[in-house]
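The records we work with from here on pair a chain with its fold. Here is one such record, which you should read through line by line:
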Amino acid sequence: MRILGIDWGKKKIGLAVANSISKNINPIGVFPNNHQIFYKIREFILKYDIKKIVIGKPVFTKTYQEAPIFNEIQNFSNNLFNFLKENNILIEINYVNEEYSTFLACDLINYINLKNEKVKSKIKKKLKERIDSLSAVWILKSYIDV
């Protein structure tokens, strides 16, 4: 089964796709969080035959309480569900704690930069631009590993 991972942000949304059987996870990209994002998500659902969506749920590390921004993520999720339903796509949407997902994505990028000091600034910039899609990869990994 293919699963779409979403790292929601006020300005950008990172997407990744996973195969729950092979546990292969790939970043798709980072997209502006604007009026076109639901159409973009629908496009990927159809392209990859997605059966489930997993959205990162920000929590406070020590208490595991939901971060205040989670209300906005729930609104996004509800609006996405309704948009997809209007387009005859019924799909389950779940949440998974995303603690450290962005931190781990940044850590990976720093590791790549350290391993290859000759990485040109253009490549470094592209890696930084993809942080949100790498965060979506970590979100999916957390979900699949549960």
